[in-house]
Structures are given as C-alpha cells and as structure tokens.
Design brief:
The complex is a heterodimer of chains A (225) and B (461). Chain A has 225 residues and is an all-alpha fold. Helices cover 78% and strands 0% of the residues of chain A. Classes of the chains: A mainly alpha (225), B mainly alpha (461).
Chain lengths: 225, 461
C-alpha cells in the first residue's frame, strides 16, 4: 500500500498534471488551428468588449437572465464551481505538502472552512446527480457519461473528507483520494469537463456574434447574459 | 361482432400497409452519404467541435424555447435535445444515416424550431443552437428531404431569381401602376427604376408586388415626401431568402448575389429593405458568407426600412406626424427575431413607435429577449401541414399579445405579419395587425406642395 501511495504521490501525480495541462493546451491549440480555416466568422467580428460582457456575468452568482430564471440551480452552479476550484487549491493540507516539497505555498483556508467547502461540493454533486435523474428535460438528454462525470468529480472530495475526518481506513482513503483526483485531472481535458477552458471560447464567440456583429450603424448588439 | 371487428382490423391493416407502401414509394432512393459527410465536414470547425464537446446537458435552454413552453414543457422540445437528436446524432454516426432517420430529423429541424436564436442567450456556454439546426437542415436538404413549400420556393429562386417566380417585366409594371395610383395622393410621386448613383435601392418581398401592391405605393409616398434620391432595381429586387431556411446555401446565394450585383452596377449608396426580418438576416449578415466576401460584409451597406423610418421621423423629422391622426387605442409592437435579436433594431423601433402612437404598451419579454411568433425560420411558406404546429407553438405569442390589452399591433416583418394574423383568428385576440409603413402613411402630414392639384371634372361624368 505504501509503495502504491508513493507512486501515486510521486510520478503518477506529475504525470496527471502534465496530461491535465498538456491536454488542455493541446485541445485549445488544435481548436485555434482549425478555426483559422473554418471559423472566419469568429475573427471577422471578434470583440474583446463583447467577449468579456459575454463571459463575466455568467461567472457571477445569478449574474444573467438565464441563471436568474432558475435561481436555485443558478446558486448551486456558482457555489459548486467556486468550491470545486477553490478547495483543492487553497486547502490547508495541500499547501502543507507543497511547503514541505518546494518550500512555498499559497495562503491556505482554515481547516474547518476547507472541510465545509468539500462537503458543499459533495452536496452539489448529489443535487446535480438527483436533478439529472428526476428533471425530465435533463434526464432525457443524459447518458451514462453525464452521470459518471458527476461521480468522478465527487470522488476526490468524498475520499478527501473521509481521510480528513479519519473515518474508515485512513491509508486506503488517502490512496483512493489520490487515485480519483488523478483520474479526474486526466479526464478533464478530454471530456465535457474541458469546458474549464472551452467555456471562454464559446462565450467569446456568441458575445461577439450577437453583440459586436450586430452593433454597427446605429444598431444595438443583443445581450447574451 | 367478432367478424365485424376482425373485418375492421384487417381493413385497418390493409390501409396501414398501403400507407406504408405509399411512403416507401415517395422516397426509397439510397441516401447519398458523401453529400452529408461533405456538409458535416465543412461545418466541423472549432465552434462546432466546441459546441458538441461542451454541452453539459444542463437543461438551462429549455425554458427559453417557446416550443417547449407552448407544449407543456415537453422535454423533447428543449433546444439541446433537438440538437442532440439531429445534428449531434449526424456527427456521431459520421453521416452514415438512412432516410428514416433523416425524416425524423426533418420533423424536428423544421417542425420544432424556427431558428430564432433565443436559446443561445440562455445557454451557459452560449452555444449557437440555431446554427446547428441550420446545418442539420442542410443535411436533409442535400437528400431532397425538406418541406414542400420551401422546395417550391427554392426552385423558383433557382429558376427565376425570386421566390415567387415573378418576371422583371411584371415587377416593373406593378411599380409603375402603383406610382400612378399613389400620385393621386402625393403629387409628383414616382417609383424610379434603375437610377445610377441613387442613395437607396429599395428591395422588397415578392408578395408585395404579387398580393399587396399597396405596400409599394405606401413606401413610395414616404420616400417621395422625404425627398431622398431612391429607386427600385429592375433585377435583384427580391430581398427575401427562403432557400436560407431550406438549408441550401447554393440557392440562398442566388438572390443575394443578384441584389448585391445590381447595387454595385448602379453604384447606389445603400440597399434598402422592406419590413421583412429574414431578408435582413440574409442580406446583411449571412449573404456575405455564402458569397465568400472579405470581412463578412456586404459590398454595399444594407439598411432595414425600420431604421430609415426612424431617421425620417425621429432623427431628421423630415416626415411629420399629425397628432390628431395618431391612433388613440392601445398599441403593442412585435419584435421580429431577425429585426430585433439578430438585427439590433429594437430601440429604434420603440422610439419610432412612440412617435407614431399615443398609448404604446410593450410585450413581456421584449426587445432582443422577445419570443418568436412561431412563423419564423420558413414556417409560413412551409405549407398547410405545418399550420397546426405554428398555431400550437404560437400560443406563447398569443398570450404575450393578450396580456398587453392592445387592439393594434405593429409588425415589421411579413412572416410575423401572417403568423399573428392567423393567431388573431385562432386565439381570438381582437387585434389589427399593421406595418410601420401603413401606420406612417395613415398619419403623416402631406405638405401643401405635395397635395395634388384638383383636376377639372370631366364633362358629363
């Protein structure tokens, strides 16, 4: 078990991060590459202003008409993403490890807050999973992968919380925590979770397309938020 | 009884078989997969890959769709589902599909979507679902699977350059006839044809010369009073583009090219368009891409008549409105998708409306967030099979109109015009549907110099 832990905490972790960042960069570079020949419309009407207007409100809690039309879901989306990104980066235990390994770390959350954040992610995943099962419009579109991705996202948080509270077999939970986190990192660039970066591209396009492209000669651009 | 029932059942079975055989006879030719693959490939750029790759099936788009709302939140009406089961499936199967599948696609992409683009405003990723539906339409069209009404108009465009197969002679004759008629209202009125260097080249929907020639006369009155140098072109006068909704880019580029070429040939400053929504989308936004024009811009600027009317009445005040002739009743305004959301003209339209009526009440939602009337995306000319569908989906628009309490509605789009007239009957809305030009000509002040001199009455008559 210890050897496996050392493998996961060592080379496997490096490899996961390389695949994660490399995968995202390659996916983005590939799309930018084909866009040169096939998406002239993007470049013809691109506008930084409309792109930002199209992105920023969607990152704010209930910042858009769409989010406000389903306020509960809108709040869940915001809190979920906030904790999903914030907890692993600012977790006290993670920063302690970085401090040990490299001699530097980020400002860390108090332990109790990191714990709450993790439980929020777990609760949101449960909510999204159940919603997928019971809401007809979502259920009809959902395939196995949609459910699996939610479980994949929840897994490192569940195992992390179990390890933190020392519930069950600590070393097993730690191994599962590392394993699930690494699987998640590797899956992100190649799945729908790639919206981590693609979100910015698709939003920039629609903002420019419906905003900048229309806003000429006394006309107005349509808001997409 | 048993015998009777058995006889009925066997009769039903025979009928069913006959129907099935008939359907098979209609089209049993093999699908040309290569054509579909070609369309999928051309459109498989970074945007398409991203859209297909990120849709998280979150369901946010559902509530934005009037089809979904009008059909008691039927999950199969949600925009993402419609795209997933049509274009999504076409990409997944790499175009290797059969006719039966394409007929299902047909039902969705023409029967359950008007490509109004409202869902894109509510999608967290801003996916352009209407564009994706458009690509699915193109795939069906490539196999001759498209609504009969659109197939007919497309054929007209290919053969004659305009959707109603009207000859240039008839068009010019109709203009001359209207000029004569309306010169009795406004002195000196003309409809000049092919004037080189004119400020505006006025283009129309062929149904105006065919069925509503008074629309031409009214426009001539307004243009003449404003005193601008304008003309109608003898060719390239049809600004509409139903081939666009058929998903046929080659055919769709024909009327646009005719129009651009004529404008360039005459050296006019701007192409002016009648109160039509999809014509504006075609001529100002999509056309340049079909023709591969640099920068995605038309060779000559394109102006919608709503904008021109706003300039004349609100900005320059060269057309004056008689307050005594302004309607007293409650008036509302339809935001055609391709004039507002995809045309950017909603605010000008409101300023113009306030200058023309005393009691204007907006619908909710409005402006670029307005719902499609249910007649867009080529629905109106698709034929009678589709009428039942547009009456059902138009429920949302009917309720919007009813809630304003209006007895008059201004509709600057021919397709919305027909749809709202039909909704008026179906839902007993009790509204009069008018265009801007109709409203303007009813209340504009005709200056003394434009009042025709009284002709001496002919003896004995």
């Amino acid at each position: 078990m210890e050897a496996f832990y050392n493998f996961l905490a060592g080379p496997a972790l490096w490899l996961s991060f390389i695949i994660f960042f490399g995968g995202l960069i390659i996916r983005a570079a590939f799309l930018v590459g084909i866009s040169r020949s096939k998406d002239g419309v993007f470049y013809n009407h691109f506008s930084w202003g409309w792109s930002l207007k199209s992105v920023v409100p969607w990152l704010l809690p209930l910042g858009t008409r769409g989010l406000r039309s389903q306020p509960l879901l809108g709040v869940v989306f915001f809190v979920f993403h906030l904790c999903l990104l914030g907890v692993p980066i600012f977790l006290f235990a993670h920063n302690l490890l970085w401090e040990e390994a490299w001699g530097w770390s980020l400002p860390a959350l108090p332990e109790w807050l990191g714990d709450i954040g993790a439980w929020i992610v777990i609760a949101c995943c449960a909510f999204l999973f159940i919603r997928r099962l019971v809401e007809p419009t979502v259920r009809i579109m959902s395939g196995a992968m949609d459910y699996i991705l939610i479980l994949l996202v929840a897994a490192p948080f569940v195992t992390g919380a179990l390890a933190y509270h020392q519930w069950g077999d600590y070393s097993l939970n730690l191994v599962l925590h590392l394993l699930s986190a690494e699987v998640l990192l590797i899956v992100i660039p190649f799945s729908k979770l790639g919206h981590l970066i693609l979100f910015f591209f698709t939003r920039a396009f629609i903002g420019s397309e419906m905003g900048a492209r229309r806003e000429q000669d006394g006309r107005l651009g349509a808001r997409v938020w | 009884l048993d015998k009777e029932e058995a006889a009925k059942m066997s009769e039903a079975a025979i009928n069913h078989k006959a129907q099935a055989a008939e359907a098979e006879q209609v089209d049993n030719s093999p699908v040309e997969v290569g054509k579909i693959k070609g369309i999928l490939d051309v459109n498989n750029g970074a945007r398409m890959k991203s859209w297909l790759g990120v849709c998280a099936h979150c369901g946010f788009c559902a509530d934005s769709c009037f089809f979904y709302l009008a059909h008691d939140k039927d999950p199969t009406m949600s925009p993402a589902y419609k795209v997933k089961t049509t274009l999504g499936e076409l990409y997944k199967r790499k175009g290797e599909v059969d006719r039966e599948f394409l007929r299902e696609v047909y039902e969705t992409v023409w029967g359950k979507c008007t490509m109004c683009r409202r869902c894109s405003q509510y999608c967290p990723f801003g996916i352009d679902l209407a564009t994706m539906i458009g690509v699915a339409r193109a795939c069906c069209n490539s196999q001759g699977i498209l609504p009969e009404g659109l197939a007919r108009t497309k054929q007209n465009i290919i053969e004659t350059g305009n959707q109603m197969a009207m000859s240039s002679e008839d068009w010019v004759e109709t203009c001359k006839w209207m000029a004569e008629e309306y010169a009795e209202e406004v002195h000196g009125l003309e409809m000049p044809v092919d004037v080189p260097g004119a400020k505006y080249m006025y283009t129309v929907n062929p149904r105006e010369p065919m069925y509503y020639p008074q629309d031409l006369g009214m426009m001539a009155e307004i243009m003449h009073l404003a005193g601008d140098n304008w003309c109608v072109p003898s060719t390239g006068w049809d600004c509409t583009n139903l081939a666009m909704f058929a998903g046929d880019k080659a055919a769709a580029s024909i009327p646009v090219k005719n129009m651009y070429d004529k404008a360039v040939e005459l050296g006019v400053e701007q192409i002016l368009m009648t109160e039509c929504g999809h014509a504006y989308r075609s001529g100002n936004f999509e056309g340049p891409y079909w023709l591969g024009l640099a920068g995605g811009q038309p060779p000559v600027p394109v102006k919608h008549s709503v904008q021109l009317f706003w300039e004349y009445i609100v900005r320059d005040k060269c057309i004056k409105i008689d307050p005594d002739k302004m309607p007293d009743e409650v008036v509302t305004l339809q935001d055609p998708c391709n004039v507002s959301r995809s045309g950017g003209l909603w605010e000008l339209m409101r300023e113009l409306t306030r200058a023309l009526v005393k009691d204007f009440r907006d619908m909710s939602p409005n402006r670029e967030y307005n719902h499609c009337c249910g007649g867009g995306g080529g629905f109106i000319p698709m034929g009678s099979d589709f009428k039942r569908r547009r009456m059902a989906s138009g429920k949302v628009k009917a309720e919007q109109i009813k809630a304003t309490g209006a007895t008059k509605i201004i509709v600057p789009c021919h397709n919305c015009f027909d749809q709202i007239n039909d909704l008026n009957k179906e839902y007993d809305l009790g509204v009069k549907v008018v265009s801007f030009k109709e409203l303007i000509t009813e209340s504009m002040i005709i200056p003394q110099e434009f009042i025709p001199p009284e002709e001496p009455e002919a003896a004995g008559e």
